[in-house]
Amino acid sequence: MCKMEYFLLLTISSAIFDQTWCQNYSSSTLRPNNITNPTVVCENMGTLQNGICLCLDDWTGASCSISNFCPGQNLKQFTFPKTVLGQFASSVERCPPETTNAGIPQASALCNKTSHSFDSPNTVDCSLTLDTINADLSGATPEQKQNLAASTQILTSIPERLTPHNITNAAKITNKLLSDQLKTQNMDIAVSAVATISQLLNASHEMYTSVDHDAISVLTKTLQKLSLRENSNSLLVQPNVAVQSLKMQTPIQNVQLTSLKGQSDFFLPDRIKLNTGHAEIFKDNVDLQINITLTEDSNEVVGFVLYNNDQFFRSKSFQPSLDTERKVMSANIQENLKFEVMFTVTPTAFDVNYQYSEALHWISITGCALSVVGLSVTALYQIITRKSRGGSPTLLVVNVCISMTVFYLLFLFGINNPVEHVNVAKMSGENIVPESDHHKYSDQGPCTAFTALLQYFLLLTFTWNTLYGINVFLLFKNSVSGTPSWFPLVAMAVGWGLPAVIVGISLGSTYHVEEPLGYRQEEFCWLASVDHNQKFSIKKPMFWGFVLPLLLMLISNTAILLHFSYKICRTNPNLNRSGKTSLKKKMMSSFSLAVMLGLSWVTGYILMITQEKNLKFILSVVFCLLNTTQGVQIFILFALRPFLNSNPAILNYLHAPEIGFHKKSFFLWKNKIPESNDSYKSTDGDSP
Cα Rg for the chain, rounded, in angstroms? Predict the structure, then answer.
């Protein structure tokens, strides 16, 4: 793809590259496994990813062919829908409107992993509240506690009904239930309690701002103790929580817990893998992983708790900026284990796998190089022949050539960032709250300077393009007196000053040495355009520091071109046949003005909103060719053609376009003075 097309997409749509977000919550040593089975066919809507089938939650197996659900079933007087193994199903029947718990399911049933059918349903009193359950737990019998645990699970099954008060009460209830379970080993209570905790994590983030965080903290500590129970290799898994215990039968040094990917982010029993060593697992199939290395062999208990989000661990001092999920892992050991433990985990900050550009395409290099030569010759020609056309046109054209030449040179030698940051996982030996959940790089190298210069000289080019158009408009308006005497001074001040003001505001409001990506991008030395979620943001300097000013100038230049074309194409009945300008010359005049006004960039905005693939490709090629060779076009129209017209012996059949008016003639390229001011004879000439 042409580099100028890349530049367009950088400046307008920020879509020239795909950025893959990397969630660095594990740096476990995963060796790439290139052994894939190309003959694998994923069944039951499974998706093939790097040779591995990612299954829906209700299917499992290498090809997603093994059922992982209980089919819908009528049990007693209740109806339960299809449900994933190991999870609770809520009854279709709801509490009546006149009850306290109106709309809450009347019953729930656990989908048994062994029988693939529902266990006996648990029911709830539609007038029962969490406050009542919390009060009734003290002094309750084991059977009553089991019923209260089931009722708590049902009352918290609808996330939208969870208030801060309900979440706090449910946390206190489950903490009491699990604390008792550590003594009684009642797995039914533990399953209902863990299911309740999983449901609490479904509540909206706003609900947790007013929750009693002490109750949540105590609950998480109880879950850690639960993971250290003596039951060998026991596993409690619900969609948002997994509690894994490992009683080491023989002394070992390495323990590895891995959660594999599926089409959903929920935890499932068959996706939780526990190994007592660094087992080789498909890297692309790992969702998260943690390794524990003991300095000496041990046969004690190791426990893990996995949380599918960080609702229980929101910091008051740290507010996340990324719209991403943050899973939380807890690894625990018994207090009497007196060995040093090393956790192989990475910092909690997120980073981008940056896609750095390759070298410029030869089309871009050739087009830009030719444009630099053409613009240099045009500027020199305009200066040498300035007496034949007056000061204002020469001033404008020369400044356009200078600013565009510098821009092309900066683009050729400075668009790519010479400093590449490679995303390498690092071990963190500190337990501190990070300043941000997005990894920051301090400014290095010349990329920021190139970005500022590119922004300035590209804005400078379009500013002088616009001033050239304003000069043409003033000539039409004041056809007798010409351009006002004050215009050159104002043009110099606006032409060089306005872009400097915009660049200064952009740098001053968004650039920091510690975080340069507020102003520029990482892969390319150009203005930042997207937020941390990789979505185009009007708050970024790309929009208000370039796209918006450029759009306003292009609209102005388009209006000037339309006005110019209308004026020169309108036929004056007072002119005789010999005084009328040919259609070819009128079209060439309009084309010359369009080139000088930079209207080829309009194709960029059209390309930005185009969705059809073939049309997008055609427009990208057109944009690339037009903008890499804009300097060549200016050279042909504003240097070569006037020179040839003034030397007919070289090419006597090539005539430059001329614009005829009722009382005065204006010429795009002037090589001689009209024979008479009262004549309407068409003559080749230069622009005013």
Answer: 36
**C-alpha distances in Å from residue 524, one per residue of 214, 407, 418, 455, 506:** 47, 15, 9, 13, 17
Which CA distances in Å does 266 have to 216, 246, 326?
21, 22, 13
CA–CA distance, 592 with 687 (Å, rounded to integer): 10
Q: How confident is the model at residue 195 (pLDDT cuts 50, 70, 90)?
A: very high
3-class secondary structure per residue, 345-398: CCCCCEEEECCCCCCCCHHHHHHHHHHHHHHHHHHHHHHHCHHHCCHHHHHHHH
**How many other C-beta atoms are found inside a 10 Å radius of the C-beta of residue 514?**
10
Residues 234-275: tens digit of each pLDDT = 889 999 999 998 887 777 777 888 888 899 989 999 999 888
Q: How many CB atoms lie within 10 A of CB 239?
A: 21
Looking up tokens 């080491």 gives 248
Contact yes or no for 385/414 (Cβ under 8 A): no
- Please provide the size of the chain in residues: 688
Residues 578 and 682: beta-carbon distance below 8 Å? yes
φ/ψ region of 116 (left if φ > 0, alpha if ψ in -120 to 50, else beta) reads left
The residue type found at 398 is: V
Percentage of the chain beyond pLDDT 90 is 45
Q: How far apart are CA 631 and CA 364, in angstroms?
A: 13
| Residue carrying the six token digits 């390498």 | 424
CA distance 43 to 87: 23
**pTM for this predicted structure:** 0.59
> Rounded CA gap, 200 and 169, in Å?
11
Per-residue pLDDT reduced to its tens digit, 318-339 = 666 666 678 888 888 776 554 4
Dihedral of the alpha carbons of 330, 334, 337, 342, in degrees to the nearest 10: 0
pLDDT digits (tens, 9 = 90+) for 483-529: 788 999 999 999 999 999 999 999 999 999 988 888 998 888 999 98
Phi-psi region of 64 (alpha: psi -120 to 50; beta: other; left: phi over 0): left
> How many angstroms separate the most distant Cα atoms in the chain?
117
Residue 626's SS3 state is helix
Q: Which residue in this structure is represented by tokens 């006996």?
A: 120
Inter-residue contact 128 to 106 (CB < 8 Å) = no
> Going by DSSP bridges, is the β-strand pair 241-247/252-260 parallel, antiparallel, or unpaired?
unpaired
Compute CA distances 132 → 128, 155, 176, 188, whole Å. 7, 12, 14, 21
For residues 359 and 618, the answer to whether their CB atoms sit within 8 Å is: no
Q: Report the DSSP pairing between strands 88-90 and 83-84.
A: unpaired
Tens digit of each residue's pLDDT (9 = 90 or more) over 431-488: 565 666 666 778 888 999 999 999 999 999 999 999 999 999 988 888 766 778 899 9
